[in-house]
Amino acid sequence: MEAAGRSVTLEFDEGAVTITNLDKVLWPATTALPAYSRRDHMRYLLRVARYMLPHLENRPLTLIRQPEGVTGKRFVQFHWEQSLPDYVKTVDIYSERNRVPEEYLICNNVPTLLWLAHVGCLELHPWHSRAAGGTDAGDAGTDYASSLASLEASALNRPDYIVLDIDPYIYSGTEPAGGQPEFNVAAFEKGRQVAFRVKELLDAMGLTSLVKTSGKTGLHVLVPIERTLSYATARAFADTLGRHLMRTHPDMITMDQKVGKRTGRIFFDANMNARVKTLVAPYSTRGIDGAPVAMPLRWSDLAKSTPLDFTMSTVADILAKRGDLWHDFFDEKQDLESVLAGG
């Protein structure tokens, strides 16, 4: 990658991927932050692919595309209409809205990871469930396309984890009119406090939880579970936790769906537990200035970490030293059905 000119073709067991315009700037420099080119992005993905791919495998993707970089238009795509390289895997999923199967992309190998970046995906957003059977999925089927009933009876309707999305609506004061909150220390500190409250509640229930930065302003707390429960049950569980926290910390936490009602508090979003809803993948870059990265943390590190610590410049070296903190993610599955039943 370093020696390549403006373009390069890389050969993999799955096939070749050609990357052009390597010096195109995708993250322009700011007063405080460096610029990053497509070459930088590809180099980063090559270094972190072995850590990131297990968190993407067999998961349908929502494509977050910014082909002209972070200063250009941002597209959210669910489907790819053009022809695909042979190494890009897909899965057909029944659309409740359109009442037909629709094709989603899956990222199961390095060339797909690079190809997605080449077509402008600066962020990778996988589903919380996998298009794959397995012993932890019980009697879930693998027919995702025939009908809504078959989809709801399938493994794709059974998430691998509960999502507890902690999203600060505490503004820095520099946002454009109507803009989303930007990172600021006060907001992240309050979000961190809420994350620890969530952990305390889950600990009391005997449930192990994991935490990562969103790469922007918030935090994601995940509860790995066996795939025995539907998204609806996962959402109800998250909603119950959120409402308990909101009752005990009304000045700090809100679940109000009206954005204007969230100002000054942390939005606890239980509705992220749904088919098609996605979170940014561990180790994915974000399409904002500075190329921050969504980063799994130890709970013991959360108190002294901020999203600014984890960027395309720093994360690959951190992973080379410590590895993936979530490498045993699928070994940590918990029987939430038993917990809910009081077992």
Rg (C-alpha, Å): 20 Å
**Proportion in helices:** 10-25%
**Architecture, according to CATH?**
Alpha-Beta Complex
Poorly predicted regions are none
What do we call the CATH topology?
DNA primase, PRIM domain
Largest sheet: 6 strands, mixed
Number of strands: 15
State the fourth-level CATH superfamily: DNA primase, PRIM domain
Beta-strand residue fraction = 15-25%
Shape: globular
In whole angstroms, how far apart are the ends? 54 Å
Please tell me the total number of domains. 1
Average pLDDT: 92
What is the CATH C level class, in words? Alpha Beta
Short structural summary:
24% of the residues lie in helices and 20% in strands. The protein has 343 residues and is an alpha+beta fold.
Observed structural traits:
single chain, DNA primase, PRIM domain, 3-stranded antiparallel β-sheet, globular, alpha+beta, 343 residues, 6-stranded mixed β-sheet
